[in-house]
Each structure stands twice: as C-alpha cells, then as structure tokens.
Amino acid sequence: xxxxxxxxxxxxGLAAIELISAEARRDLARVxxxxxxxxxxxxxxxALHILTCVRAARPLGGAMAEAGVLAGGTARxxxxxxxxxxxxxxxxxxxxxxxxAPSSSQRESELRAHFGKVHGTQAQVxxxxxxxxxxxxxxxxxxxxxxxxxxxxxxxxHLDLDFEPSTTxxxxxxxxxxxxxxxxxxxxxxxxxxxxxxxxxxxxRPDLRLEMPxxxxxxxxxxxxx
Length: 226
Known about the structure:
Shape: globular
Structural class: alpha/beta
Largest sheet: 7 strands, mixed
Strand content: 15-25%
Distance between the termini: 46 Å
Number of strands: 7
Low-confidence stretches: 5-11
Radius of gyration: 18 Å
C-alpha cells in the first residue's frame, strides 16, 4: 500500500489494515458475506475483532452469548467462529411493538422510549442462524430472559445494548459467570452511558480492559489473586 494512500486515509481519520494471514482474509470474506445477508452495523475492524476474540475464547469451553442482536449480523459472525459452543442470544426483537400494557414495568417503558420502532425480528434472525448448532434465542427484556441460565459459564460475550441500564444489568449477569480468561466485548464504548456502565462495574476489579480505537472495549476476565 502506498505511502500517499496511507497519508490520505490518516488525514481523513481512517486506517488501512493489511491482512497478512490467510485466516484473516477468510475472516474478512465472512464479514462481507454477512453484510450481503443482513445489516451489520459496524466497521470491518470491529467485526474482525469479534471473530478473533471468539476464536481465542473457544478453547476455554463454556457457552457464548450476545445481548443486543438486532438483525443478527454479529450473531452470525460468532456462529462462524464458535465451533460447537452453545450460543445464547438475547434481544427484545418485536416484543415491544404491542401496545403498552398497564402492568408494564418501568424498564419496558424506558426501552420503548429509547428504541422506538427499531428492532430485529426473531423469525428472520432464527432463519439466518439455522445452519449453526446450539443457537438459542431468548426474546424479551433482559435480564428476565436469562432466568434458568444462572449456572451456565461463558467464555465469550458480546454486548451491544445501546442503553446504560441494560448494559449494567448485562455486566452484572455475565461477568460473575465468565470463565477465567473469557472475553467480554462491548460496542459503542464512545457512548457516555455505555462507558459509565463499564467504568462503574469494573472500577476496582482486576480484569484487563482494552479500549479499542474503533469504539469497542474488550475485557479479559481475571483469575483469582496469586
């Protein structure tokens, strides 16, 4: 790649990445294939990072999860790299599109106000992921939808909830259940609410936290003190 092109991209605030390995080039092909099938609302660097972390976490055993599925693009990437690991997918899907009931919780009202009519469709996501083994969809409001999974251990979790209270709830559920060395990726770390949720939860905890320059945060679960 020419020095001139690199300089131009840097001036525009963009980065050019040379994919050296054949595996990385295959991963980029997976990302592009996914974009053709369903909306994938992230850049290539974020998508490649997810594939890399899923592959790194896979030997740890345990299940994997994503909270905030929307149209299933990142869930498909996880499916491509997870092997036989169970994958639990949590999303409101279309469950909030019905009229608000008088008995609805404050959280439901907040989610309706935050997301409006933006949602994925459970049937479409299920069809997109039907080729991957061990995929479980949990429609509804998290963390109520995680009931019955309290004893599951996780090696990889992707959080894309776009909402501070939901992100806090997800960290409170998943982090204690992470296998040592397991990875949590959070999207939209540039969002003040999402950043607050991560910063408050991990304040004083020994886990390694990496802020990625493309807007993700990656957390590696620390083991017990030596």
